[in-house]
């Protein structure tokens, strides 16, 4: 069973619309009742390359503890969060709990593998995968414990459409398996999923981290960093069906819903349907 929890992270990008997004979902959708991990505000010096570092760290530690608690009570955590920095907490919990070869499926328009040395925006939501690999700012790599949370050979990224040049180098240097969105459209989503599932078949546990900006913003407007084109709802449901039934998925995230940028509850309604779909698998 998946147990839903939420955290309204926004310090990883600074988009105000994320702050109320979890409350908005809870107030408007019956199936989105959840425990909330608060976002923690901490004071710290301004750093252009690591914005709101202290707040992001404190919040991700809270997320990691909540995810770990759900796992130890025998359930699978399903986190709905604001910006994608939250995945440093949620994936850390899965990794520490499952020990060893934890796999990660990262469904996103962005690889989010910048470090404090490569970032252009200074937004930490562009860095979680790097941090989980033990790269970059040390305080982002130590949630729950000091272990390095992921091995680069245990990651698959699906749907990339916006890779910063230094990110392309990091992906190459660490031999990270990724499928860009246009490659997927050319070779077929089912084929790419089959390959991804084979690639992670040695992993005893897998975490699926789904960013709504992996989808076409014309279809899903409620995201903070929209990139043209992307998956549609059928694609996402197919990915869930294949990944969640053929891999030992222990935990999942749904992130970056920004209700201020949503239109007529299109994105909010999708989040509700996605949760229902996932919980029904
Ligand atoms: N989770 C996201 N929406 N990430 C967007 C990251 C955009 C850009 N690559 C950055 O590092 O700032």
From TrEMBL:
Q: Tell me which InterPro entries the record gives.
A: Arginase (IPR014033), Ureohydrolase (IPR006035), Ureohydrolase_dom_sf (IPR023696), Ureohydrolase_Mn_BS (IPR020855)
Q: Keyword set for this entry?
A: Arginine metabolism, Hydrolase, Manganese, Metal-binding
**Which CDD domains does this chain map to?**
Arginase
PROSITE patterns of this UniProt entry? ARGINASE_1, ARGINASE_2
Cofactor needs: Mn(2+)
Q: What class of enzyme is it?
A: hydrolase
What's its catalytic activity? L-arginine + H2O = urea + L-ornithine
Q: Does the keyword Acetylation apply?
A: no
Query: What is the E.C. number?
Result: 3.5.3.1
Cross-referenced SUPFAM superfamilies: Arginase/deacetylase
The pathway to which it is assigned is:
Nitrogen metabolism; urea cycle; L-ornithine and urea from L-arginine: step 1/1
The family note in this entry says: Belongs to the arginase family.
Q: Which PANTHER family match?
A: ARGINASE
What is the name attached to this protein's record? Arginase
UniProt organism field:
Coprococcus intestinihominis
Per the UniProt record, the lineage of the source organism begins with: Bacteria, Bacillati, Bacillota, Clostridia, Lachnospirales
């Amino acid at each position: 069973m998946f147990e839903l929890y939420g955290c309204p992270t926004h310090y990883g990008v600074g988009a105000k619309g994320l702050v109320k997004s979890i409350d908005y979902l809870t107030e408007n959708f019956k199936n989105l009742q959840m425990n909330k991990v608060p976002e923690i505000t901490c004071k710290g010096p301004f750093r252009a390359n690591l914005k709101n570092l202290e707040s992001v760290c404190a919040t991700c530690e809270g997320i990691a503890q909540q995810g770990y608690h759900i796992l130890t009570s025998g359930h699978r955590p399903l986190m709905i969060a604001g910006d994608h920095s939250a995945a440093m907490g949620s994936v850390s919990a899965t990794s520490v709990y499952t020990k060893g070869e934890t796999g990660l499926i990262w469904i996103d328009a962005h690889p989010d593998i910048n470090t404090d040395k490569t970032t252009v925006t200074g937004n930490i939501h562009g860095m979680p995968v790097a941090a989980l690999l033990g790269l970059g700012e040390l305080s982002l790599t130590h949630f729950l414990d000091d272990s390095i949370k992921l091995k680069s050979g245990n990651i698959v990224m699906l749907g990339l459409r916006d890779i910063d040049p230094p990110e392309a180098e990091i992906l190459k240097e660490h031999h990270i398996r990724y499928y860009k969105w246009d490659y997927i459209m050319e070779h077929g989503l089912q084929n790419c999923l089959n390959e991804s599932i084979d690639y992670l078949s040695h992993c005893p546990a897998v975490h699926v981290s789904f960013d709504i900006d992996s989808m076409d913003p014309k279809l899903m407007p409620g995201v903070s960093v929209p990139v043209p084109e992307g998956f549609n709802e059928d694609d996402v449901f197919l990915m869930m069906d294949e990944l969640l039934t053929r891999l030992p998925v222990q935990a999942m995230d749904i992130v970056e819903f920004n209700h201020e940028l949503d239109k007529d509850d299109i994105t909010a309604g999708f989040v509700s349907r996605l949760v229902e779909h996932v919980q029904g698998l």
